[in-house]
Specification:
Largest sheet: none
CATH architecture: Orthogonal Bundle
Distance between the termini: 47 Å
Radius of gyration: 16 Å
Shape: globular
Strand content: under 5%
Structural class: mainly alpha
CATH class: Mainly Alpha
Length: 183
Amino acid sequence: MNTKLEEAIKLVFIAHKNQRRRNINIEFSYHPITVGFMLKEYGGRDEVVIAGLLHDLIEDTDYDYKYIFNKFGKEVADMVITVTEDNTIEDYRERKTAFIGNIKKANDEVILIEFFDKLHNLLSDYETFLEKNTYDLSSNKYEDVKWFYLSFLEIFEDRIKDQTLINRYKEIINLYFPKKVLT
């Protein structure tokens, strides 16, 4: 029997074939698989876990909303499109500001998808950050990346009631941005 969850995992490997993580030399599929399983471990419903697995599909592959809708249903497709940045906006700050605005309006399950996405990005990039002594997310400046992740901290503090999750995010943020003391 092939469940929707198994289909989503298979799709991640197919869709992200030959893609690599930006800052570390591993297959890209490692990231969405980890985000999906973090959501599962946290107790997320299957639809949320599937959306977590597919969260980068529209943004980073040729798959679109319609494909996800037809394969996994409207609820999953709506969650995935909500956590997808509008890559037609070229300016970093403008694109990220629009994205943050969308996330602020999202339901709590989408907030959790975004939380585990951001947490895993920070965790998986930290070794590279230490080696280069900078956060090299594409060509974006340190202050822009700091603003972006701190903006999400505000959303997460407002919307996620599990203080353990918030404290973990703060702990990782403090490693990257030590001048911003977060307690």
